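Lecture 7 notes: from sequence to structure.

We start with a single chain of 781 residues. Read the sequence below before looking at the structure.
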Amino acid sequence: MREPAPEVSSGGTAVAPGPAGPPPAGPGTPDPVTSTTDPAPAAGHKPPAGATRPAPRRTDKLGTGFWALFAAMFVANLGSGITTVAFPWLTTEMTTDPLLVAGVGVAAELPWLLFSLPAGVLVDRYEHRRLISSTHLGRALVVGLLAVVLFADVASIWMVYLVAFTIGALTVLNENATQTILPRIVRPSQLNRANSNLVLADTTGGVFLGPAIGGLLLTVAVTLPFAVDAALYLLAAGLILLVTVSARRTAPAAGTLPAPPVGTASGPVPAAGAAAETAAATDPASATDPASATDPASATDPAEGPARRSLRTEMAEGARYFWNHRVLRQLGIFLGLLNLASSIIVGTQVLFAQEILNLNAAQYGVLFAVGAVGAAAGAGLAPMLEARLGARQVLLLTLFGNSAVSLTIGFTSSALLVALALTVGAGLAVVWNVVTISYRQRIVPEHLLGRVNSIYRLLAWGPLSAGSLIGGLVVKLGEPLLGREGALRAPLFLSGTLTAVLICYALIRLRDGIWSRDRDAVYGPEDRTPEEEDGMAEEQLTDERPGGTAAPPLPAFGGTGGADRPVLKTLIAVNVLIAVAGLVMIGLKEGLTPAAAIWDGVSPLHLATEMNGPAVDRGEVWRLVSSMFVHYGLAHLVANMVMLGLAGWKLEPILGSRRFLELYLLSGLGAGIATYLFTHDALTAGASGANFGVFAALLVVCLKLRQRSVLAIVLLAFGVVTTFAIPGMAIAAHIAGLVVGTAVAAGYALPTGDRRDRLRVAVPVGTLVVLLLVAVVALLL
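Now the structure, written as tokens:
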């Protein structure tokens, strides 16, 4: 029922964060990925007069070590996602008792309550890659044995509980080590983006693809999902061996173990928690704490500590730091209560899906997959949202969304509406994870991070098993009073109400640290780059401040944003969501065959949104826009999204997110209007018209900047050939998208200047006005 590492869950769907880790060692630390010899200058450093400053170093490459970790996480969570639906489904084949069904969730989450603290000590003691690889191998062994037992038909529900508990115990160690290793792989300025990418891998594999595949595998044999999961864990263990990391930094000298900052109004929380050597001199708590002042073991290297300190001593050291850090303490307790409220839904959600939504195994898996589309979009949008709104507003937004999702699901019996609610809730939950994980990475010293993470995650995960048990009890006790359906809905209403209470508390009481409206209180002034300290022009450098935006790579086109490509990711996510909802959730339920869903499926959703001239004549003008977001079959979707991804990946950082969105929507609108005018009675759908506009714009941009235009030419050539070679293609739509995209991009390419700047702004506005006038005239005539 769970994703392997959620820090906050939404709407009953557990959403996993990317790994989090310790902060940088501070100014002067060698780059763990791309630099081994050039330390960064200290904050406030001024070059000698007449010295030549080197160009600012690009910070956008995450390195091969990160991508190896990314691949391992994707593979492992793909396997975990498969068994996310397989475990509860297997349990329902053994019993329908809600308490026993919820028991598998309790068994899986209980290790977080029992083993979190010892796991943190082990992570701080031992080599991270070895721990991660070993836990993958252990999970492969346990899940493989369960597959053998199921194949032999000798399994019992108690065996299922034991396997779930063992996997949960190994996951505790795995997730802590995975969080802690990240800052040894990427620079501090890359943490938000690295976390966002890891969450994207986590949700894509564990929540989007995994559960859907698991549901399909269950239709073949109940043993198959567990066998596939074991094989994927083995592959993940091998991939971890490819991860390269920087050397671990030592703990501070004896007597200088830092007491944590409190993050109150007296000063912001420092962003470089690893600068431990000076903390004792500035924080009275460290000088008065007998344990931190007298324990010589606190000065040891993490690799040497196990021989000289007891497990209890090291656990106490981490607990002392966490508890004295008021903002971390508040955030951990708050998250625990939030997850308690959310997990009330999880224990019985499979019964809700079976009995109220009337879903089979494959559709149940797809329900998770649809929610994960929102999670993937949230991962892509998180850095941009934090930069635009600030951490406090983003966190409050996620809380409101969490409550609204639970209440919405509680009131409906529509699988489509549940899928949409889960999509929104999952996206907001992932945004929470990216923001809070990156904050924790910046303020906790590296030698304490494993233990602080374990305490934080204990508070976050510990209530999950209790929440699942509470949900089962609510259904069990409520059934005589409310009936079966009312009892299954009761956990959703209880979850939404509890979350609303937490929102009120956050609005009234939480004001410091990450909850502060002051940006420096969240990120700290120490996050400024050396170039900013030296007074360089802001537009000439990359903002390394967390939540900052990259400097425009190509100012001629106004690309002041979009380095993380949030619009591209969102557009792909929306197209995928609509395709899954229409072809799978609705189509299969209405009798659409799997082959039709893949190649040429049409569902009731298509009939309501595709381009249809006579329907537009009847007033259904939304089809001029909605038709660009629906596809006839999953193959049609994949083809369009792959080509959009190839072109958009290069184009959005150049144009910026706003202009890229304008280009896409205007090209798609032009395609819809052209279809209405020239192929009035044809039924058409797909993003290819908008894609042609993107291809044309990419070619214009490459020619303007005198860059290689091979990609744009190949995409255009492929599009033109398929347009005229494949029967039934919307020729008018493709040509219109090409023309509109060329016109808009030509406007963006105009030289800068006062009058020309106004003209650059007027081109997309004028294009929209012309398109709307043409549409109005056509409708009137």
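The chain has 29 helices and two strands. Keep this in mind for problem set 3.
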